[in-house]
Amino acid sequence: MASNAPLPPLRDVIATFKLNAIKGLGQHFLLDLNLTDKIARAAGDLSKVTVLEIGPGPGGLTRALLDQHAWRVIAIEKDKRCLAALMEVCAAYPGRLKVLENDALALPETGIAELAPPIKIIANLPYKISTALLVKWLTADPWPPWYEDMTLMFQREVADRIIAAPGSKSYGRLSVLSQWKTQASRLFDIPARAFTPAPKVDSTLVHFIPINTQAPPGLTRTLQQVTAAAFGQRRKMLRSSLRTLGCDPLPLLHASGIDPTARAEQISISDFEKLAIEFEKFSSSS
């Protein structure tokens, strides 16, 4: 369902409400309506879902989500300057957009009354907090999480880390956590010049579908500990880097069937899970 009333071009909205992007908030506005529509379409059928959008800014992607028949959009915006512009979008799509002034990092999403399942998270994330937000959503408890899937924009180098395979230079802690908890896939890239102001790097849209893992409670936290130790000294062999866990790593590695001379970037997601399980056994017995 399209807007009931015409909305001004996004550049006019930015000028009217003086919405110059703030570097400290990691803001880079996407004003090309063809691209915002492409993002909304890539997220799939929105007609029966509630969409959670973070950092809508002047509302370009918000408009696209509503035009792509999103049943309802809950937009979380920290920047007070954007609220008046977003109220115009609310008026153009009566009853379908709710704008909340809040810090997405501190917000307990399950406490938002209007956020009714099924839920999709779709956002051009503020670069400054994109990784922190992703980790927050990947470590949701209980699991499977409160959302159905996520379609999120990142700086391309962050997206590369998310989807990196073992053995690659980009493979690291974020790769392990993302791929252990979800099926993460690259959708498409967007050049830096498409944003206002243009960032120094291109961006990538990534889609995440939660995996229904049967991991015991607390294992996500343990996995984060293990990967932090392993990749914290990624040039060292695991028999050395894992000593920062506070125990002799050799029994853990042998029990997991992992070569102690291997390095972190050589270890598969499933082997990191085995290692986390063994470390959790050790921690509970000591």
Strand and helix map with partners:
Blueprint: H1 10-16, E1 29-30, H2 33-42, E2 50-54, H3 60-67, E3 72-77, H4 83-92, E4 97-101, E5 119-124, H5 130-138, E6 149-155, H6 156-163, H7 173-181, E7 182-190, E8 195-196, E9 203-210, H8 219-232, H9 238-241, H10 249-256, H11 269-285
Parallel strand pairs: 2-3, 2-5, 3-4, 5-6
Antiparallel strand pairs: 1-8, 6-9, 7-9
Helix pairs in contact: 2-3, 7-11, 8-11, 10-11
What would your notes on this structure say?
The protein contains 11 helices and 9 strands. With 286 residues, the protein is α/β, with parallel strands linked by helices. The chain has 2 domains: 10-210, Rossmann fold (3-Layer(aba) Sandwich), CATH 3.40.50; 219-285, rRNA adenine dimethylase, C-terminal domain (Helicase, Ruva Protein, domain 3, Orthogonal Bundle). The strands form 2 sheets. A 7-stranded mixed β-sheet has the order 4-3-2-5-6-9-7, with helices on both faces. A two-stranded antiparallel sheet has the order 1-8. It is elongated. The termini are far apart.
H/E series? HEHEHEHEEHEHHEEEHHHH
Question: Low-confidence parts, pLDDT < 50 over ≥5 residues?
Answer: none
Spatially, the strands of the biggest sheet line up as: 4-3-2-5-6-9-7
Distance between the termini: 60 Å
What is Rg? 21 Å
Helix share, percent: 25-40%
CATH class of the largest domain: Alpha Beta
The CATH superfamily label of the largest domain reads Vaccinia Virus protein VP39
Count of helical regions: 11
Content of β-strand: 15-25%
Here the CATH topology of the largest domain equals Rossmann fold
Number of strands: 9
